[in-house]
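Lecture 7 notes: from sequence to structure.
We start with the chain below.
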Amino acid sequence: MTENDPHRLASAQVVVGVDGTPASNLAVRWAARTAAQRGRTLLITHGMDLRAATVDLDAGAIHALMDEIRMRGADFVAMAEGIAREEAPESTVSTEVSEAHPTELLIGHSRTAHLVAMGVTPGIGAAAHLGSTLLAVIAHGHGSVVVVRTADPRGQLSAEGPVVVGVDGSPAEQAAIATAFAEASDRGATLVAVHGHHDLFVDSFVGYPFVDAPLQTMETTQRELLAERLRGWQEKYPNVEVRHRVYDRRIRQRLLEWSKTAQLIVVGSRGRGGFRGLLLGSTSNALVQHAYCPVMVVHQD
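Predicted structure tokens for the same chain:
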């Protein structure tokens, strides 16, 4: 994150993709609240993918179907705009109905957006939700992509609790840490940095005296490694209270447990095996599918 980061510019919008589902409506409420609190424009967008919808149809059928799809898209966006204005009456809202595929549309917006938000239907695996759209945007988007989730049966979103960031020593880690500090600062929240004994790449710290510590002091060593990862960001955001949490195993389960009380979980988009690991039961995949709060996946741009 730099001073010229397009995602932090005053003109950067909060973007939310909508499709008329309850999960989409939840994402709208979260995005509207976030945009209003930060004085940013909220863009509500819907991609119709007319090219795919009209394949193998004759001219008459194409015309009728395109009209129906456009009307349905306009209805989705109008409903979402009503939800946004109810959630945050003071917010500035713009809307868009595009003929593009929703994946292309959202990835395109993510290049300059403050963040992109999407909903995920509880209890449905990520690969099944919206076909491949959710996974594709998470995997190939830019900046921050938020999967908005809640375990509250009434669909309530909590603005309480800490921001929690997973620290794993991967190349994408610093982008996630930078964004997590910014989010905690914007929200006036405590930041909890979580990692497991085997998450950090020890070879990233070759030359540091504490790396050669004996096994019995492993937890102390890991805390020092974690502090080293966070030190520069703590100096940049002195208003953010930071807590360190080191675990020896079951890091995925620990993050899921934290999501019960957190208002946001932040993770990087690339782990040790690359983000394709999301399809293979990675920690990020578990969070996207099962977390109890919104999950922000941060990309290196």
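Points to note: The first helix runs from residue 22 to 38. The first strand starts at residue 14 and ends at 17.
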